[in-house]
Design brief:
alpha+beta, 5-stranded antiparallel β-sheet
Length: 191
């Protein structure tokens, strides 16, 4: 039954004993890692299957948690190319489970490569849009529908001697226009 439950999970799942030896390895993890369960069960997770854990901060946390039977971690991790068929971004959750005198450690591995790739593309698009705005000579300020400043360009920051990015507080339309009014000559435009 446990094998079927693990195989039905939509994420990778491994069960390790208190020595870090793989006791269960589900179908999804076979697909994700490219390793068959026949070649992984009974082998050391740290030295045989995931030697990359020695090279990163994740390794000591894993080793310590298993050694103390208190494994409890959640971390995003990018498996480097030499350890996988293709680079993969994953979210790893690991937990020690105690039942009477027995202890097992479950490791759940979720492939978040698509989400991370989408986030990177989105961030790249934002940076590209900002670079385009910064090349314009005219000062530009964009406000959200609820009246908060969301984007400015270099010309705006230079003209008004203000960088909204350096503040944790949101700038409202009212606050922005007060700033503009202070830096302008008196005019009926400002009321």
């Amino acid at each position: 039954l446990l094998e079927q439950i693990l195989d039905d999970l939509p994420i990778g799942a491994l069960v390790l004993d208190d020595e870090g030896i793989i006791r269960r390895f589900n179908k999804y993890e076979e697909q994700l890692s490219g390793l068959s369960r026949q070649k992984t069960i009974g082998r050391s997770f740290f030295s045989d299957i995931a030697p990359c854990t020695k090279d990163i901060e994740l390794g000591p946390k894993f080793h310590e948690g298993i050694a103390n039977n208190k494994l409890d971690l959640s971390v995003e991790f990018s498996f480097p190319y030499p350890y996988n068929r293709v680079p993969r971004d994953v979210y790893i959750r690991a937990k020690s489970i105690r039942h009477h005198d027995e202890v097992a450690h479950i490791v759940l591995i979720e492939d978040i490569t698509a989400e991370i790739t989408l986030t990177r593309r989105f961030r790249s698009d934002l940076e590209q849009g900002q670079a385009i705005l910064d090349r314009l000579d005219d000062a530009i300020a964009v406000f959200s529908a609820d009246g908060h400043l969301t984007v400015t360009n270099a010309a705006y920051r230079k003209l008004w001697s203000v960088d909204p990015e350096m503040s944790f507080a949101e700038t409202s339309v009212i606050e922005a226009t007060r700033c503009w009014q202070k830096k302008c000559r008196a005019s009926p435009v400002w009321g």
